[in-house]
């Protein structure tokens, strides 16, 4: 089973907002105490955060579906629903978050760096929050918004100061194992290293990280072998070290040819410019002629060293097995890394730019569309879409409240300007989740027959009857009952025994 995964696709679903509550306060001698429904809680977000304890994306490879908790609905007695907990997913340092189309959303570098990949839905307002001097008794509440859904691609680009590149079986893993505490797999066959190996090297007072990249072959930048999968791990490295096998017996292989082949593959690979990457051919490069413990290899290394130095390259002759030349190599690499760190431009935090809306921005627009079913008018905008999602269409008063909000926003005027007439098909929201209705210029619901929307006539009557009025009303009630009994007795004496319905 693989223990290292550097790419994973996540399917994220943020928490839904809790529904608002429609409730009326009741207590003894006060049957209509006014609305007291609480608001729904906000749904939980899904946050990707750099965790130094996480070194691979293996967990998300096996479990790509993640869902945050929903907000709780509001309750009576002005009790708001609890908010959903945010789901924090730990990712390794150097993780790039992008879409399926390759658009980079975030580059998480540094412990604690985070990105909100999916936001939770807003909680719906209860009828207590919807009450106003004109709407004293709302008989409805708003629904909670659904949480966002997202599909993101996580790609790990190893953060190392020095990268070892070269042909398979050139001795890169052996070199990492002797200069650091890393214990990579070492064997005498090609492509022993299938995943990058990281090690920490200490040279004097300097510490730097070194990465062993799987072996490259001709055509690696176009996807041959394992090169294309792991060349991205050297994008962030300050120094590239060419490890060349001077003891190879393969025909057509020699140090100069191996160097030219790898240099060509590095030049063909194009780093992601959006992440601040620079071409690999422009990095500091050091040549390491390995396996100098073999006499023939040592002679070959001494022979090609002048040619490599004429190209302006720094050359070191080492032996990972015999531990020859390793101290000089580590101190030289430490110097290159320190100079690269000193020259590195400090990244300034992004400025917060405020972009207020234009004065004539209505917050929505109406688009006229021709579909196979005929002409339709689509209303697009954040507020109309959010209002529609929060409306309980099983409640006439809630539908009327939505109509009032849309009219105040100017949607009705926008439809008229776009050419809509009574009976036109209107869609509010995006194509995949739109509400469809036949538009009428004046939207009315049955609740208006009971008075102004959001009012209750029983709340307007504040008269409290006196004791004399109560006694008079009781006497009238009893007199009416006595008259009814006398009328019924007279009918029976007359021989009429049929009960009246």
UniProtKB/TrEMBL annotation:
Gene that codes for this? obg
Q: What cofactors are annotated for this protein? A: Mg(2+)
Q: Boundaries of each Obg domain copy?
A: 2-159
Q: What is this protein called?
A: GTPase Obg
Q: Give the matching InterPro entries.
A: G_OBG, GTP-bd, GTP-bd_Obg/CgtA, GTP-bd_prot_GTP1/OBG_C_sf, GTP1-OBG_CS, GTP1_OBG_dom, GTP1_OBG_dom_sf, OBG_GTPase
PANTHER family documented for this protein: DEVELOPMENTALLY REGULATED GTP-BINDING PROTEIN-RELATED, MITOCHONDRIAL RIBOSOME-ASSOCIATED GTPASE 2
In residue numbers, the region (Disordered) covers 61-86
Q: Which residues cross the membrane?
A: none
